[in-house]
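2 proteins. here.
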Amino acid sequence: MNTHHMRPTRIDLAPATREAMVELLNRQLADTLDLYTQTKQAHWNVTGPQFQQLHELFDELAGQLIGHLDLLAERATALGGAARGTLRMAAAVSRLPEMPAGFHDGLAVVRLLADRYAALAASTRAAIETATRAGDAATADLFTEISRALDKALWFLEAHLQA
């Protein structure tokens, strides 16, 4: 993204910093949107004796991701950039592995989601560091908020995998 494609704003960050943060936010937006759709896929296709509990948990986790999507997209636009948030845009650049198609036993799908939540949590922590180094405390704080929520979601998923 070039600065000339950025809208002007009175936010007191250098244009190059705003541009870099918009790119970072859009990378996280793509991964988060991908994780949202994969969590819904798990919600719809989970099977097994824990179906009801996991079906509800996955729906709750997907709902939380919607809130993260808004935070990421709205921060990108507040900085003068454009949010790239369609499914096709996200699929083209997501760094997460694809959720296998079909029906999945409860614990198998929990493992698949836990791996993906852990990957997004790790990239979110890296984004905190990147935003901090760039001097954008507000974007770093946004990523910190999302990081805490992802860690909590991962805790809920991993609790199902404990023997």
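next one coming up
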Amino acid sequence: MIAVIQRVSEASVTISDKEVSRISDGLLILLGIEEADNNEDIDWLTKKVANLRIFSDEEEKMNLSLLDIGGEVLVVSQFTLHALTKKGNRPSYIRAASPDVAIPLYEAFVKKMESFGRPVFTGEFGADMKVGLVNDGPVTIIIDTKNKQ
């Protein structure tokens, strides 16, 4: 499971010219799921994301977590995070999970993020989404659950 985590002052998802989700201060999480991912990855990643100290305290030091600031979360599925680009110019997405594997894991990830007591919004799995954001900082962190060490 790969997550691209962006600290945002606002983010939104639009599908077919209709805004379906919008958040203010918080995290935009682009989530890529592969066939080998499981509930252990979800548990580890959600805990890591919720507690990442990437928000500024009163001294402008990144010392606060999403939970500390009472932030919101927007989770967007993005299979292209698993693109393989070594051969040729057309990326291969063979590592990305098929929808029958990815959808339940995506939904479980969202539910687990909700368990931290913060509002969690989503895009629509598999839809052609337009994601808008104002990256605050900018702060962007990439976490791969296959590299926990």
